[in-house]
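Exercise 7. Given the encoded structure of a 328-residue chain, write a plausible sequence.
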């Protein structure tokens, strides 16, 4: 068959690699899908072709400021709620605001919109993540998590945030008082008769002063929370301004289908499926079948475990980018 370009084709390729249909592979379809997902996550984390550098642009809203209510996460939607129920957000003994949930036909809370609360100058003066209470006629079981701002929501495909483009620094002001403009106006009469060396050295010196006296905005990012916290004075940016982050995002194989043809990924996914197959058969170890044939799932498991160790070692030595210093 042709090189796999879709997930079903990749799945069948891995099973054929293990012997299907000549050999019966004793593994459930859900287990195969789980092992493929596990292989894709490992591939995105370590393979230089599994992720790429991306620049993520985010437009700041009033709710993103650290003193405002940024979002209300729904950990569990419960049952029996309605859109007319009231969610009261509190900070200590003070009521911050009230909200109405969005529910489905069975009364499960799907989301709690907060955008309608805000104008350009709204300030809830939150000092920590607030708490909540729900006023409902018959709902129960909902678990919510109100969150204060001070962070940028990050898409799930982004697996790392390494930098934010400079915010509010002197070299980036777009007006008459821009230092670049002033130096060029006063010190560079023509680009053909004046050396560029003093200009370049002056900018280097200014950047050094900014780095020493102002510094870069520290970032805190956790991919499981999908939040990038920027520890800065948020008043230096206005609602509607853009923040640009330098990130790494996982390559989606459903869009870039050549991922399914990667040789290392094919071997690693088949190895994980083989390891699962061995685990499934270990419960029959020692069982004798008609004709004196003995089950030996442990042999399959041991072979797959050794093959997995070799593949992961090959990944680190041959397909991973060198580890760089952490700056923060």
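Solution.
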């Amino acid at each position: 068959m042709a090189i796999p370009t879709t997930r079903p084709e990749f799945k069948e390729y891995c099973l054929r690699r293990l012997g299907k249909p000549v050999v019966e592979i004793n593994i459930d379809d859900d287990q195969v899908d789980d092992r493929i997902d596990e292989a894709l996550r490992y591939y995105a984390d370590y393979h230089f072709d599994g992720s790429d550098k991306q620049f993520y642009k985010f437009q700041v809203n009033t709710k993103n400021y650290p003193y405002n209510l940024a979002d209300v996460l729904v950990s569990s939607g419960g049952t029996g709620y309605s859109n007319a129920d009231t969610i009261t957000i509190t900070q200590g003994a003070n009521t911050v605001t009230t909200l109405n949930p969005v529910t489905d036909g069975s009364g499960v809370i799907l989301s709690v919109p907060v955008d309608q609360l805000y104008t350009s100058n709204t300030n809830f003066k939150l000092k920590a993540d607030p708490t909540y209470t729900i006023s409902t006629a018959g709902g129960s079981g909902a678990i919510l998590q109100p969150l204060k701002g001070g962070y940028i929501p990050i898409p799930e495909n982004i697996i790392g945030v390494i930098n934010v483009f400079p915010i509010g620094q002197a070299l980036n002001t777009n007006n008459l008082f821009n230092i670049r403009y002033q130096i060029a106006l006063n010190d560079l009469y023509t680009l053909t008769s004046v050396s560029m060396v003093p200009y370049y050295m002056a900018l280097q010196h200014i950047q050094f002063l900014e780095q020493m006296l102002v510094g870069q905005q520290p970032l805190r990012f956790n991919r499981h929370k999908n939040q990038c916290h920027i520890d800065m004075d948020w008043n230096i940016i206005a609602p509607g301004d853009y923040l640009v982050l330098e990130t790494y995002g996982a390559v989606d194989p459903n869009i870039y289908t050549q991922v399914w043809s990667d040789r290392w990924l094919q071997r690693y996914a088949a190895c994980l499926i083989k390891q699962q197959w061995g685990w499934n058969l270990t419960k029959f170890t020692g069982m004798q079948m008609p004709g004196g044939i003995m089950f030996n799932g442990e042999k399959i498991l041991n072979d797959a475990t050794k093959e997995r160790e070799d593949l992961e070692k090959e990944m680190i030595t041959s397909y991973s980018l060198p580890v760089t210093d952490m700056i923060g």
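Remark. The longest helix spans residues 297-319. Students should compare their own answers with the one above.
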